[in-house]
Amino acid sequence: MEIISRIIAPLLCGLIFGTGLLVSGMVQPTKVLAFLDIFGAWDPSLAVVMAAALAVATPGFMLARQRARPVLAGQYFWPRKSDIDAPLVLGAGMFGVGWGLVGLCPGPALESLATLSPGVIVFVVAMASGMLLHDTWQASRPPLQPQVSINPDR
Amino acid sequence: MANFTPVSAAIGGALIGLSAVLLMLLTGRIAGISGIFAGLLNIRSEDKAWRIAFIAGLMLVPVIAGWIGYGMATPKLPANWAVIVAAGLLVGFGTRLGGGCTSGHGICGIGRLSVRSIAATIVFMVTAVITVAVTRHMLGG
């Protein structure tokens, strides 16, 4: 039944996630930029999206933590890092600037590929290049600690 | 606040949260889109199947929505290609360096009550707001 855990469940989750982005309007850069434009005609919709997502995710993750392992897999891959370090702040800062320039973050960008918009395709290629650039640069540095752990850290 | 759409935002947000919970509860994975996508790009990364399946689901949504008459409008992007390329590079490099994006830090991370993710979300929100303020109100874009 590996096909359920490796294909069907993630596909279903991708469909639900994409539906959420589409229904909320967050696939549209204009809608996202209207939230970020607090000095213009401000649209608080994105804050409602986050609040609603967190209202579901927070108790949901607590429920997941009470189980020794996921329903369909052998182990949880909870993120292990918990410190606020320079790469976190610098990376988040860079991401925010790019997000503010066009109003696309990775989820909506990948979902929007379905429209075959040339601008979106160029954005995703540039985003993939940025990721590869980072990962190649990281690989050339001394090995870092693994980023996942078998057991929850809390 | 002429364009405020609280009802669709709440429904959409709840679906995003549900997706993140189901992915963790069922498969043990974090629904961080930048991490899922970056794992696809890494040749050494194993277990690509679930990543492909998740992103395929994401990309199928506008297609299915189109079939049932709710086709997605083509996103409106800046006319300047250099801006699009620069933004893509910053989003790609930044999400890898910072270990997440709006989904991984903003929803999954804060949902796990991770102080690291709360900090990241504050930082990218602030720099994004400043970027929009500068490009729209100072440079007159």
Looking at how many chains there are and whether they match, the oligomeric state comes to heterodimer
The backbone outline of chain A, from C-alpha atoms, is: globular
Give the amount of beta strand of chain B, in percent.
Answer: under 5%
Indicate the low-confidence ranges of chain B by residue numbers.
Answer: none
The count of DSSP E runs of length 2 or more, i.e. the number of strands of chain B, is: 0
Portion of residues within helices of chain A: 55-70%
Extended strand count of chain A: 2
Unreliable residue runs of chain A: none
- Strand percentage of chain A lies at under 5%
| Number of helices in the DSSP assignment of chain A | 6
**How is the main sheet of chain B built?**
none
Q: Mean of residue pLDDT of chain B?
A: 95
Structural class of chain B, by secondary structure, is: mainly alpha
> From the alpha-carbon coordinates, what is the Rg of chain A to the nearest angstrom?
18 Å
Series of secondary-structure elements of chain B, N-terminal to C-terminal: HHHHHH
Spell out the key features of this protein.
heterodimer; A: 154 residues; mainly alpha; two-stranded antiparallel ribbon; B: 141 residues
Polypeptide structure, described:
Chain A has about 150 residues and is an all-alpha fold. Chain A is about 65% helix and about 5% strand. Chain A has one domain (about 1-140). Chain A has 6 helices and 2 strands; from the N terminus they run H-H-H-E-H-H-H-E. A two-stranded antiparallel ribbon of chain A has the order 1-2. The longest helix of chain A is centred in the N-terminal third of the chain and has 23 residues, at about 1-25. Chain A starts with a helix and ends in a 5-residue tail after the last strand. The relative contact order of chain A is 0.11. By secondary structure, chain B is an all-alpha fold. The chains are: A mainly alpha (about 150), B mainly alpha (about 140).
